[in-house]
Amino acid sequence: MRIRIVDAFTDRPFHGNPAGVLVLDGPFPTDDWLQQVAAEVNLSETAFVRPLPPGGDADWALRWFTPAGEVDMCGHATLATAHLLNENGLAKGLIRFEARCGVLTAEAGPDGTVTMDFPTSSLTPVDPVPEVARALGAEIVSLHDTAAHIGDLLVELADERTVRELAPDHAALRAYARRGVIVTAPAEDPSRGYDFVSRGFFPVHGIDEDPVTGSAHTALAPFWSARLGRTEMTGLQGGARRGLVRVTLAGERTLLTGRAVTVIDGELLTAP
């Protein structure tokens, strides 16, 4: 069984966010086997995808596992999967994925980008939590809770430098997020090609930091759209590894656009 590692939200190897991708011929193996593979791959997410019979609402069934458990929504591993299916001639044009969060679509453009259609996350303002500020080691400008599909805390910080230099207490953050904590700030210099920055911490799922979290941008898009007065923006996410996510806010849907590159093509020797 072939397994690939694809770097998502980048066009250069060893940048962006790596995801494992396994294309299956038949039904999903047991959850225990899928989880063991994801733990062995040990990336923030491993995607498992299988073809569906023609005539339905979706073409492929897609599931995502972190090293610690299954998640409802994942952007970078969806981008990696769509890139791989197109690269290997297994799908062309619009791809419809059946996932735990509903039907998601991804479409490769003539310029090599992939655009995904995800549900926009709602944002609920909450009072700043002193314990979260202490765990982050930074003063909170504003704090929002997000919708059920992602379940993140969205934390606005003062500036890009504060986001970049953040060194949070990951163990302390575990108590304050259902899924993760996203920190964000406006770009210091938008002429560099991005409008806002972010970083994502997911200790609940055994991921101290996720380099580029596509699903988090379904909350970052409405957040920054309200502040910048635009529906099309570009976000830069990451610490040591970084990637670019182009977002288009379209009401209840958010379009996420990025690039991907396959860096490893290998064989999984243990069958289900």
TrEMBL record:
The keyword Oxidoreductase does not apply. Keywords: Isomerase. It holds the Pfam family PhzC-PhzF. One of its GO terms (cellular component) is cytoplasm. InterPro entries: Phenazine_PhzF-like. Gene3D superfamilies: Diaminopimelate Epimerase, Chain A, domain 1. It comes from the Bacteria. Its EC number is 5.1.-.-. One of its GO terms (molecular function) is isomerase activity. PANTHER family: PHENAZINE BIOSYNTHESIS PROTEIN, PHENAZINE BIOSYNTHESIS-LIKE DOMAIN-CONTAINING PROTEIN. Belongs to the PhzF family. This is Putative isomerase YddE.
